[in-house]
Amino acid sequence: MDSASLEQLLQKSPALLWQGRKASTQKQGIASGFPALDRLLPSAGWPLACITEISTMQCGAGELRLLMPAIAKLTQQALYVVWIAPPFIPYAPSLSAYGIDLRYLIILDSIDNEQDQYWSMEKLLPCKQCGMVLMWPHSYHDKHIRRLQLAAEKGNSLAILYPRNRQQHSSASLRLLIQATAINQLQITILKARGVLHARTTTLSVQL
Amino acid sequence: MTNLAQQTQLLLTTEKNTDTAPAYQPLWMCIHFPLLSAHSLGLTQKQKQPFIIFQRKSQTVHYACPAAQQLGIETGMPLSQAYLFCETMIAYPRNKRKEKSLIQSLALWAKQFSPHVSVKYENALLLEIRASLNLFDNIYQLEKRIRNGLQVKAYPISIASSPIPIGSYLLARKANNIITETRHSLHAELGKLDLADFLIDQNNQDKLSNLGITTGHELFRLPVADLSRRLGKEFHTYLNTLLGIQHEPVNCIKDKLSFYDFYDFSNDEQDFELILRHMYQLVDQLLHFLIRNDLSCSSLSFTFSASNKASSTLIVNTSSSTRDKQIWYNLIREKLNAKKLSQNNVYGIQLNVSHFQHHNYQNQSLLHHNKSEQSENWQHAIDQITARLGPNAICMLEAKEDHRPEFSYRKTPYNKQQHKPYLTHKHTYRPLWLLAKPIAISRQDYVPSKNINIERIEDGWWDKQAIRRDYYIAKAENNDLLWMYVDLKNNHQHFLHGYFA
After folding, report:
1. Are strands B493-499 and B433-441 parallel, antiparallel or unpaired?
2. What is the ipTM of this complex?
């Protein structure tokens, strides 16, 4: 096989062939709206068809503001964004002010059973009309993550987990740790990302 | 002087000699349900203990099960006499209302074979099938379909077909599987019946017996004028109708388009998978009905009945009408799971659908998945979640023009056809998380390190829910950004109302 045909094969089916760190840089992503963060992420944005885990020790660190530009972009493209079991009431005027089209924001907040929460996420992720699903689980196992990973791959959608209790280990493709260092200042540490060998940290300015 | 047989022959000859194109000749199929009264009460012949069904008014036996018949109990016997034959038999009063309800439901089911279905005669259905013969190839195929359909439901039946409705009914009551497509052959078959098999009142039956008449052949040989004089004009009309000399009016059920099908288990069932399988079979029947009528539907109504007369209903809805089998299967499974049916016994399942829409055909792209296909996937996922978690599980948010934070948003049920204008509120400092109930903060426990942008919200005097608050953003020790306020109406108490997440 000559190099031209090998290159052709790699371009044709990148997911089927492991390509080391190069593969992850070729992955599709949605721009986060923060150039510094995009430069840090292997997919140059929030990775599609992957599970992203965002850990934070607080409720008001800015963990949601980080996603607002991406959510606004998706809803404006008529793609649904679903929030499963949010810990508090998502405040509609504020969301609207961030540019989110509320007609494409769905809330599943009356599901007490965690199995049902995972089941719902798994059902929604493969839908082509679903752009992003966010969930706030109390706990999870690798089995859950693997199932969600397959569902996200099927729909090429964004799956975000905000674990309420920080997990030591997780098979999520991308793991971020967020800490507020000052007002409107976030320190983001990439704990794990495909194609990234060492933890990377950046500090972002996230306006209210 | 002519007799009835000669009159019939004359009529047939006239029909043959007519030069004009043959008129539409109706063909009536009668399906007789001999055990309808027992089935309406949920009784089957498999029951070991002898039982009878009695007429409440006359206190006579209406139906005796085979075990009771073996003991000598017969239909028409006084109830007290029946007890002499078997003291331990169970006697159920006949319930005509239930019988009527059952035969009506069977009539709805039979509408898949003919649009003209009548319940004119007791325990029987009349179907005008001449026009249906082309659809089902021939009468034998049609009869086979009907028998198979009712066999699944464990209903013993007898079927007869003839050009005269009452002729079909009399033949079906007496014998099984008789097809007489001409009046002549019907006449011959009716002649074989005993006098008691005709629907003749007891008085006239006695008079004919006294004349030595015992069969149909003997009856038809009698002179018409003589019969009219002796037995009255009504009897004469009855015989004319029976032989097709006089037209018999039949009222067919003319309800709006609906689908009904059911399945009865022989015992109370608790097995989830078995119940589900039979529900799927009912859905399959529905889908055949939908395809035949070029329709789709968005709501199925299942009724589960138990032998202890308790019944429950399961409604399965989709947000858009469909006839996709897999979508219905998934929704039914989720809904049945959520219903926790295992706590109850199920004796029978009924499926009723009364609202339909014309099926919406969509052009399929050969190369790419189109938008409507994507939309269908999304709707199906939403329908599944609704089926499993209930209709209130999914909601949307709406921003409202109100300064009070508690009243400036609203949760609305999910509606795919929401056409609200896209609102952009320019509230610069509003948190993303709002607490359902503000938390009182004691100044000793919590001291915000920095206060910025104090905003007074004073509103709601018109609806007796007035507030007077000074909102401010506070930074906690761990750098969390909090949305807090001082309640000016409540002793200047500080409250936490949201997080700038």
Report:
1. antiparallel
2. 0.87
